[in-house]
């Protein structure tokens, strides 16, 4: 299958499974809040953020290995693939032991960390152990999934992962409804990762029968992979920057405001994260495609694909942002009740963060494919700026201050520095070309927004009281903006035009077959 065909296959399978997962997750969130309470759900979010911090020890090993797999997969070098995956397992198992030890030590401080909560400490520790177990299983038994992703077969792992965890959510809802027992709920959190690991390894063995699961990493192999280890060290700094930007929000809110507020913000983040994940799953196969593209080293083709990806990300991000703005408050009200509504400024800040996360992806994909991680100062600067701005603005402005810190740090490092670095060190062409293209796409978006604003003002906005009315409202405004934005992009954006023609050609070929 071609790169485009595999990308599309990854996208539609990811889309299907994630939609099912989102529907179940939204329904279950309501049940969880009613039966477990705001404070408990806030603690769940805080514990997951703590585990993200412990997972910094992974330090980007998986991403570095994914980068190193593109060339041997392209050359069908099975011996080298076995060596790289074996080396990954060697590193991951040691990381797993470190995370386990660090987590055990951290539990000793739980009486101090959670001294102001009403939840039983034993329950909190049991919950943390359940969440920790899932992480440890991935370190010891699931690292082969990076081969699937690099080989554009990520749809296999997605289908298994989402199926198992949809089952978990359904069972957790039933446990709360019929047994009203939080320990049973946590027990399901603990056991379902084992099912996922079993099914995943079975699928990997069937897909790659030549893959050696008990590969022995000798000193000679470790010596040969010194370049990979160097990439891992560089990536470690980027991992820290990513965690501080995205993983410390709940910890700061827990520390500076309250555990219950973590739950309130978590409702908004749940929606945003699911949309981000959904779009990420749709585009996940493109990372391997970009890796193979870079391996071919055709600069004209690479820049052509880059602008196709950029135009498509702008299109997705722009349309999704409008639909979020139009329907978010009504969704929260219908889903959880007006009690859980937060300030419109918080909503706008989260939408802006969502937009940044989307339009940065083409740069990140090519940067990863080139293995450009030597700019270790950038994530450190991003981390410092993020924490500094977030703490200052949270103390002065409350919850929204956390998101202001994220927006400022990501704008300076992610939107300004990273494109410059990619075009200078990766493509090795004048980065003015990037700024021209990027700013023109901002203009196209603003132009679409202005046209939509007058239609929006003319049509008028109404409040909805049920899910059907909300869907109708979002669909109406979403389609209006999509048609406007699509028309402008297809007329003015060369990248978008090339992408549409390519997709139309692909569909025609599929139809003929």
From TrEMBL:
Keywords: Cell membrane, Membrane, Transmembrane, Transmembrane helix. Its main location: membrane. It is found in: Cell membrane. It is a multi-pass membrane protein. The keyword Nucleotidyltransferase does not apply. InterPro entries: Poly_Biosynth_Transport. The chain crosses the membrane at residues 12-29, 49-70, 91-113, 119-142, 154-177, 183-200, 310-328, 340-359, 371-393, 399-417, 438-462, 474-492. One of its GO terms (cellular component) is plasma membrane. PANTHER family: PSMA PROTEIN (PTHR30250:SF26), PST FAMILY PREDICTED COLANIC ACID TRANSPORTER (PTHR30250). This is Membrane protein involved in the export of O-antigen and teichoic acid. It comes from Algibacter marinivivus. The lineage of its organism: Bacteria, Pseudomonadati, Bacteroidota, Flavobacteriia, Flavobacteriales.
């Amino acid at each position: 299958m071609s790169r485009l065909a595999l990308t599309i296959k990854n996208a539609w399978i990811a889309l299907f499974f994630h939609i099912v997962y989102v529907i179940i997750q939204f329904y279950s969130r309501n049940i969880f809040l009613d039966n477990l309470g705001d404070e408990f759900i806030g603690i769940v979010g805080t514990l997951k953020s703590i585990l993200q911090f412990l997972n910094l020890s992974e330090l980007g090993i998986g991403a570095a290995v994914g980068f190193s797999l593109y060339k041997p997969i392209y050359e069908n070098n099975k011996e080298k693939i076995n060596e790289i995956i074996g080396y990954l397992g060697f590193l991951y198992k040691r990381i797993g032991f470190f995370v386990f030890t660090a987590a055990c030590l951290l539990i000793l401080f739980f009486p101090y960390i959670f001294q102001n909560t009403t939840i039983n400490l034993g329950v909190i520790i049991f919950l943390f152990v359940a969440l920790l177990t899932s992480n440890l299983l991935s370190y010891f038994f699931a690292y082969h999934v990076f081969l699937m992703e690099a080989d554009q077969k990520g749809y296999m792992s997605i289908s298994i992962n989402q199926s198992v965890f949809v089952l978990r959510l359904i069972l957790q809802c039933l446990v709360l409804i019929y047994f009203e027992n939080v320990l049973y709920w946590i027990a399901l959190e603990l056991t379902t990762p084992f099912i996922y690991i079993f099914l995943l390894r079975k699928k990997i063995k069937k897909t790659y029968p030549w893959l050696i699961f008990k590969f022995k990493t000798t000193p000679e192999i470790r010596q040969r992979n010194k370049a990979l280890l160097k990439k891992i060290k560089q990536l470690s700094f980027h991992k820290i920057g990513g965690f501080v930007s995205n993983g410390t929000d709940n910890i700061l809110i827990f520390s500076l405001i309250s555990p219950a507020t973590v739950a309130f913000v978590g409702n908004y983040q749940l929606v945003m994260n699911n949309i981000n994940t959904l779009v990420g799953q749709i585009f996940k196969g493109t990372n391997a495609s970009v890796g193979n593209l870079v391996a071919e080293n055709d600069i004209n083709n690479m820049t052509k694909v880059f602008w196709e990806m950029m135009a498509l990300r702008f299109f997705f991000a722009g349309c999704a942002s409008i639909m979020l703005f139009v329907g978010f408050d009504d969704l929260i009200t219908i889903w959880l009740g007006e009690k859980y509504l937060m300030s419109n400024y918080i909503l706008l800040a989260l939408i802006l963060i969502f937009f940044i996360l989307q339009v940065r992806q083409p740069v990140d994909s090519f940067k990863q494919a080139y293995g450009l991680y030597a700019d270790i100062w950038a994530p450190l600067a991003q981390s410092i700026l993020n924490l500094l701005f977030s703490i200052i603005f949270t103390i002065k402005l409350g919850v929204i201050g956390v998101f202001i810190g994220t927006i400022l740090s990501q704008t300076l490092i992610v939107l300004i520095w990273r494109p410059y670095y990619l075009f200078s060190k990766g493509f090795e062409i004048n980065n003015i070309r990037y700024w021209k293209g990027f700013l023109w796409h901002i203009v196209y978006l603003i132009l679409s927004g202005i046209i939509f604003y007058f239609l929006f003002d003319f049509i008028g906005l109404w409040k909805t009281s049920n899910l059907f009315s909300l869907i109708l409202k979002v669909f109406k405004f979403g389609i209006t903006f999509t048609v406007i934005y699509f028309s402008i992009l297809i007329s003015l954006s060369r990248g978008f035009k090339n992408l549409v023609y390519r997709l139309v050609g692909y569909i025609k070929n599929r139809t003929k077959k």
